Amino acid sequence: MEEQFFCVARGRGERWEALCLDFDLAVQGRSFDEVRHLLSEAISTYVQDAIIESNGFVLHRHGATSHRRYRAVIGGKVYFVDVAGHNDKDEIAPGTLVSMIRQSGLPKRLFRR
Description:
Layout: E1 7-12, E2 15-20, E3 25-29, H1 32-53, E4 58-61, E5 68-74, E6 77-83, H2 94-104
Antiparallel strand pairs: 1-2, 2-3, 4-5, 5-6
């Protein structure tokens, strides 16, 4: 089952904005389709980061690419999780999610919606 969030969009012509009230996120764009896509991307990124960060991972590096590397020390062991940017995707690819779970050492249930 897919998670649903309370979001609104408004605009006219080429001035649009969309808000996700559940996560306090906002985006701007030139069309409804653009802000819908941008907001979906922002929600996906926020959820990824919130899961990782809420479990003790901190941003370790964000280089010239869209990838972010998080680091945590859990039980004396150092873990790194790489989170890829999602250019035109709204969701994390299954293989990427499996890799994130494996890298983090966190239980799989934390990554389920």
